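Quick one:
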Amino acid sequence: MERIDSDRTRFKEIVRGRIRKNLKKYISQGELIGKQGNDIVSVPVPQVDLPRFKFGRRDNGGLGQGNGEPGDPVGGEGEGQGSGKGPAGDSPGEHGLEVEVTLEDLAKILGEELELPNIQPKGKRKFESTERKYSGIRPVGPNSLRHFKQTYRQALRRQITSGTYDAKRPIIIPIRADMRFRSFKEEVKPHHNAVIIYMMDVSGSMGDEQKEIVRIESFWIDTWLRSQYKGIESRYIIHDASAREVDRDTFFRTKESGGTMISSAYRKCIEIIKKDYPSGEWNIYPFHFSDGDNWSADDTMQCVKLVRDEIIPSSNVFCYGQVESPYGSGQFIKDLRVHFKGDDHVITSEIKNKDAIVRSIKDFLGKGK
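Output:
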């Protein structure tokens, strides 16, 4: 068992190293997004060879059977040779393997690779959760917690001690006194409240490619922040000329057209914060993604005022990601940088394409706020 555990640990370290080596490719290509379960992600890891048995053909006979003399080479003349057709290759074949990795492990790899600092919570209020740890064995308990192996050992020990054990007929029959049960301790752990509020422009200038970039980046933001907080909540707002709150699936699949009024999203965000997330009790993370196009300079000034007077005082940090689009003006990020120059509570990031997602994640999460 110790050898098996050692091999398993070594294999996990190999897989971890391969994931880390290819992490930027996984992020930019979005390979993991469609392969996630509740807490597990299937990761395609190349070039990991697993030992396996290879069976011969049935018509070759059994061990030591068939024609031939001692010393003859295994296999007939020419057997095992290729057909010789086609040019010779000079590259090794690809051996793909899908391994399951928990989101917690994936977050650790992300943090190590991008050198992300742990977040310092802002919200003052903590809530408590009770966790059970099974740490011992006791002679009483419900049948649902009965420990079979310990019960068997106790029955065997009793029969050997009393002289009733028969090695020729080794039947072990536990009695009530032999029963052993798992015992647990309840640990009360404090946790900080946290919420992510995603906002996205779904106007006509935001195409499927831009929305896919937002979807990939939000997955990694979620993965990291959920590793820093327990029980984090997520809310979703879409907007064109007006804003509305939607569920996660609608957020990423909505196809709309029309103009853009960014202030409508910020007003909806403020409304949600005031209603459900008191700033003194919650760590609040608003993320807004857009192509930088806005209806008017007047609405942009409204956005600046809402961010400065309402969103920043309530939030840990306000993040704006601008996804490059052939139809968007790209002006909004310039205006934010002018009005919030030197303010580390506002983080802006330009995301030109999928290859820029890694740097953008570092921009947003690299300050530890």
